[in-house]
Fold this protein.
Amino acid sequence: MACSLLVSCHQEMDRECCTCESLEPCDVYAFAEGLTGLTAKPGIWDYPIKPGMEEWKQLNGREEKVRVCQIPEEALSSLSTEDLTNICLRYPLLHDVFVFTLLSTGADRLYIEFNGIRELFKRKDTAKELLKYYNFLIKNISVWDSEEEGIRKENLKFSIGELEFLLGFYMQMSDAITKEDSKKVLLCLVHGHEREIDYYDPYGSHTFFKNFYARAHVIIKISPQCIEKIPHKDQNAVFHSNVIIGRLDKETVDVINELSYQLIK
């Protein structure tokens, strides 16, 4: 069933998911150090203290790092969603969501601590901006065939998974996104998953978990009653487990795949 639906949706995926033409920078290895390695856009607010600076090394613990990374309120309200997305993807503590025992704990911590994410998740066009980066990486995933060193490829894979996490978390938290736009997000995530498994074993990668985490939240946003079809409902590991130690059972994988193809056809 999934294969036949994939064939029928393939052209639609390619058409709907190519929304990355305006993305800068245009070098896929600008993501080589993870999303926090992105270049700040000229003329918009930037973190005054960040990793690599001597001042960052002098900060006294996590609380102080969180404090110096807050976006001033006067800048926050005037930023376009495009610019705010760029800033949030460069948040120096973004990776910390994955160090907690439960992914849901890390996600909640990110939302509570960083005013940029709270503002971003209020915007109705946030998914569109996140998809620019996600689709750019998926479109260029064939660099996996290149001779580039392994660490750059691993960082590229991590960045894909990080964007999948943010898309899923946004879908969970936002009341602004429409059902039609939610289906576009799901379409792109399915397309991304199909591209990922062409280049590496998803069952052995962190990206595998994050893609299913994202799709599970999108599915529930589009069709809340689908929670009844997911094994153990909202207690399923797909919503909570740490991406390093958590693994999804085959039944959950099959259900998420089946629901995804049903909702995008």
Summary: The chain has 13 helices and no strands. The longest helix spans residues 150-173.
